[in-house]
Amino acid sequence: MKLIILTATALLLSACHGTPGEPNYTELPEDFRGPEAAEFKDPTPYIPGTERLSISIFYEGSYSKILILDEVQRHFYIYEGTFNIADENAIVREGLRADAVISAGTPWWGGGVTWDTAEDLSEWTTMHVSLWSDNQAYEGTEIEIEGGGVTRRIPVADYGFVPDGTWYDLAIPMSDIADTGVDVSAITRPFVLAGESVPTGATLVVDNLYYE
Questions:
Q1: How many angstroms separate the CA atoms of 148 and 146, rounded?
Q2: Phi, psi (5° rounding) for residue 140?
Q3: Which of 61, 69, 74, 199 has the fewest CB atoms within 10 Å, i.e. the most exposed one?
């Protein structure tokens, strides 16, 4: 698949609500190779005939279904410029590259995927995502999810993440998300990362995001 990366950030008025700006994406060439990631890494190979959902970001592998970030109905927003995002070719969990969230040193930070039209994710059982950081300030990172007008945050530490310079592969049951009150049959924000103050320049690397 082609890789989709953020090339310009968008403004959101708050971490939870507000009027988003205009996201801007470009597609990298299919033969793109990062300088230090010449070999495609595949820690969780897709098995043809099985179900796997990609939401078009933080994942480069194969899938049975994809929801494209089309800049019309589906977007990636960085809230109030609280972080920058950059290619990471040296620390990669899956594919040829990963995405580095680089803190802007604000009192809080957040950003992620927003869908203008709700999607039914009730058929999917597990959200998978891999995280890496060597900065303890990211210990309080949470995944924010919205469905049916209900927004909840899930601490990534509850699923094993420790910012100790090691990759952690998180598997979050969709039933855990539903148990918080989020309507998983009407998801409008499937994957938002958020947290409290992190030092300027501190990095959180995100990769291998998919649903099964």
A1: 7
A2: -90, 15
A3: 199
Q: Which residue has the tokens 């039209």?
A: 117
The predicted structure's pLDDT at residue 32? 37
* CA–CA gap between residue 202 and residue 72 (Å, rounded): 31
Question: In the chain, what are the domain boundaries?
Answer: 4-211
- Tell me which residue has tokens 């920058």: 84
Q: The CATH number of 4-211 is which of 1.10.760.10, 3.20.20.70, 2.30.130.40, 2.60.120.430?
A: 2.60.120.430
Residues of the chain with pLDDT under 50: 1-37
Beta bridge pairs of residue 37: 34
Strand 65-66 to 53-54 pairing:
parallel
* The pair of three-digit structure tokens given for residue 205, joined into one six-digit string: 């690397």
Residues 133 and 169 sit within 8 Å (Cβ to Cβ): no
Q: Specify the pLDDT at position 38.
A: 63
- DSSP string over 52-100: -EE-SSS--S--SEE----SSSEEEEEGGG-EEEEEESSS-SSBS-EEE
Segment 201-212, tens digit of pLDDT: 999 999 999 999
Q: Which two tokens stand for residue 81?
A: 């410029």
Is the pTM of the predicted complex or chain greater than 0.85? no
- Closest among 199, 194, 207, 197 to 77, alpha carbons compared: 194
Rounded to whole angstroms, the Cα distance separating 87 from 184 reads: 30
pLDDT of residue 71: 87
Judged by DSSP in three states, 195 sits in strand
